[in-house]
Structure formats: structure tokens, C-alpha cells
Amino acid sequence: MSLQQFISEALSPWMKKDGPDSDIVLSSRIRLARNLEEYKFPLLASMEESYATSKHIGEALTQDEYTDIGSLEILRIDDMKANEKRVLVEKHLISPNLADHSKHGAVLLDNDEAVSIMVNEEDHIRIQCLLPGFQLGNGLEKANQIDDWIEQRLTYAFDEKRGYLTSCPTNVGTGLRASVMMHLPALAMTQQLNRILPAINQLGLVVRGIYGEGSEALGNLFQISNQLTLGKSEEDIVEDLRGVVLQLIQQERAARENLLDQSRLQLEDRVHRSFGILAHSRMIESKEATQRLSNVRLGIDLGLIKGLSGNILNELMILTQPGFLQQYAGEVLSSEQRDERRATLIRERLKLEEETNE
Questions:
Q1: Which of 137, 173, 181, 305 is most buried, taking the most CB atoms under 10 A from its CB?
Q2: The CATH number fitting domain 1-16+29-166, selected from 3.40.50.970, 3.40.50.80, 3.30.590.10, 1.10.1040.50
Q3: What is a single Pfam family found in this protein's UniProt entry (predicted)?
């Protein structure tokens, strides 16, 4: 596949599949950080050393296929335009750090876009596996299989006492970052998140926005992940996160039921008002669009809106981001132009979905 094929569709193929508890947990991600023994870590490497590392990894991982996912396509960050990198960030296929600060960075992708192997990010290799819904265990199993496949071809930096060595001390040990993307509108509406989120941080977990560290929690979407990787096994890290996520799922469902029982009219008004704005606006800012989409998604999940699938909202969450808007326009857009195109795109997409389901 070419770069254009990877950036032409807002939804990755894996995102179109159903997963457990997908009304609340949109996706599960497992990321493993690894470095090569014989090369300087990316933060200390020169441009020439970084190029040699990237070349070595690319050749090692593209010369034959991994059985379960087929061949991997390598995309060089240096060959991409700024907006092309932005689209890959919006699809969660690369990190903002790889897009903006890497030295001779690259990414290897499978056709399903469920496997992303970043090269020369903060570490030499970052293996990322994405699955729909709540599937941390399956994600860990898949990531470990890919990790073993890579280790047959490359030699990792590993210490018998400390485990896998990484650029950031918080990743030393297993190098594992497990995370889930959760949609928590009812807990946000009932202001329970103000109490819950600090408690989660005290459990050794961290809550971030939709694009990870430093990003804002738009559209009531929260990324919850482990904070430490040293001193625990991969299975224990995943199980600790799983336990907290199960509690959040229960609390979000209880909050949704309470809203239906106690404030149904207000909830219906909020949901349908948001749908009306999305269906008829001529201009809409990104922040408002994501909040309105969150309300409509909640309405779909609770059966208050018929004839729309949850996937249409997942698609629009990505499709209305600045990178995608400019990718489809084929030009750089001003803020006002993006607001106009965002509104037009949402109107047309919602109309098409309604016509398809008539």
C-alpha cells in the first residue's frame, strides 16, 4: 500500500469491527518500547547514526512476512509532507513526537492498520497493536508475538536486573504501555469525573486526552494507561488496568441509566439539539463538533437516536480534524475555512447515512 492509501480513509479497517464493551471502550492499545543493543538511543544519536539505525530496522523487518499480518509497508517520515504526517497522527498510527521531532523516523504498517511499528521515536522501536473495544489481553498476546518475531531478527538492549532498556526511565522494565480509549459522557455530565480521575492517578495509572500526553480530553474521550513498567510483569500491568476499566464501565453505565431515569427529557433535548446543530450548521469549530458528536454517540448507544451507527461518529471524530480536512481539500485552509468545511462534511455525511438506512 502507498502512503496515499493509508491516509485516504478516516477509519482504519480494524476500527470498523465490533469489540467487547465498544459502547464505552472504543479501542484498546498495547505498546512495547524497545532499543537495539548495538546502536545509540535516538535521543543521543547523530543524524548519520539515526539514518543507519532506521535503514537497519527497515531492512530487517520488510525482507519477509510475519505470518499473522502479512507484509509490512515502511513509510519514511522524511518523505512526508507536514499534513500527511498530521493525518497519520489523527489516525493514531504515529505519535506527534515521531511526526515532529524524530531523526530519520519511519513507521511500518500492516494492511489492517492494527499494527504500527514506529522507528526512531523516543526509542528505536515502538510496537503498537490496536484492537476495537475492550481487548487488552488479546492485544498483549498479539504484541508479544510480534515482539518475538522482531527479536529473531534484531538484538535488543536488555539488562538481566532492569529488563528492557529505554530512553525514558518510566518505560524501563517491560517497556509496556497498555491503554484504553473510553467514552465517558454520562460521568462527565454528572460531574463524577472530578472525583474519579484523581483516584485513578493514585492507583499508578494516568489519564490523558485523545492523542496521549499533553493533549486535551475532547468529546469526553479519555485515554487511560499504566504509568510504571518496572517491578511488575506484563500480565500484572494489564490486569491492574483491566480492573480499573471494568469499574469505570460499570460506573458509566450506571450514570447513563440514572440520566435516563431521572433526567430523560433534558438528556433527549441535549442529544437531539446536538444532532440538529450538526445536521444544519454552516460553520462549526473542532471543539464544539467533538462535543456534539459525543452527545449524539451517547444518544445512539442509549437508543434515543435511530438509523445511525456508532461507527459514523467514530469516523467523523477523525474526519473533522484539521489534517483530514486539509487532506481532502488538497490545500492549506484557514481556521474559518476549516470550520466551514467541517460543517459541510458533517452535514453531508449524516445525510448520506440517513439515506442509506431508509
A1: 173
A2: 3.30.590.10
A3: ATP-gua_Ptrans
